Amino acid sequence: MITVYTTGVFDILHKGHINILVNARNLGDSLVVGVQDDDGVFQYKGSYPVMSTLERVAQLEALPFVDKVIAYHGVDQRPYLRDISPNIMVQGDDWLKTGKRNEVFEYLKEHNIRLVLIPYTDGISTTEIKQRVLNTHERSDKEFILKRVKFVNLEELQFYELFDEEKVVKLTKKIENDGCFFNPITINEYKIVIDGVNRVEALKRLGAKYVTALEVDYKDVDLLANVHYKKDGKVVRMSEFGNTEGERISFPRYSKDDIIHMAKSGTMIQNGATWHRVKYSVARLRIPLVSLIKGVDFNSYMQEVVDKGNIRYYPANTYICDEWE
Q1: Is 229 within the bounds of a domain?
Q2: Positive or negative torsion for Cα 115, 118, 119, 124
Q3: Does the structure show a pLDDT above 80 at 299?
Q4: Domain span at residue 164?
Q5: For the chain, what is the radius of gyration of the CA atoms?
Q6: Is the pTM of this model over 0.85?
Q7: Do 116 and 249 belong together in one domain?
Q8: Cα separation values, 226 from 67, 256, 268, Å
Q9: Burial degree of 308 (CB within 10 A; 0-12, 13-18, 19+)
Q10: Spatial CB neighbours of 264, under 8 Å, sequence gap ≥ 6
Q11: In this structure, are residues 237 and 271 in contact, taking their beta carbons and an 8 Å threshold?
Q12: What CATH number should be reported for the domain holding residue 251?
């Protein structure tokens, strides 16, 4: 039986804590969690946690993947390691830098206890949540929307991918009938369209001069080789989560440098040959077609969207257990 041990304050339990706990539990058969008590936190950080020791222990005990919870006082974990005798100790990836760990580190090596450092989850912390409360519940996703969603002149865009005529015809009819454009395209900092070339072509045919676009940092994007499946004359992309039946069509794997070079040189590849997987996406941002033709004060428009509270964030991590290149 493999016992895993991890420690922390675990004040205002959030997804960063959950990620570490779940990853820790997956390393063994039993997970023991050490919670630093109130006085210990005060001595170490100079302030008490929002939630008491008993509250923090209780919320961890309620988690189905936590087998045992103990409260500890000091930063020296050796007494607890002797009592628990874990096979693995899990900590956040800054553990070695946030205190004098030499004695504990030597203890782990002497007793053959494996140390696993798990990256902290970006964008979330107890400190950040406290700051939200102090700032009248301001949410960082508002800043994301106002900073990242942009009103872009179509002439500024660069392309590396051909459009799909059949899809463009359908999109053109839909946008014209709706009188609105709903889903922003996705571009990188070089104004290269990495998702939405068909929407751009449809807008061009409707006389639009502008488009709403989510601008992402290219370094944060995963570039994957896409796979298509062809059956009864219908082609479905893997990235569209369609039915993976029929003839499998695989495409070469391109690098980001390849994409940038193709966009600059005017080299075009088949529609859907690549799959840019981004961390965040924006959908259903309703903007009248006439605004994309004549222009609009987009900053004021987006501020109005934010002020009305019309933004909802949906976490959507998806695991696809299929073999593809």
Answers
A1: yes
A2: negative
A3: yes
A4: 142-307
A5: 25
A6: no
A7: no
A8: 41, 14, 16
A9: exposed
A10: 158
A11: no
A12: 3.90.1530.10
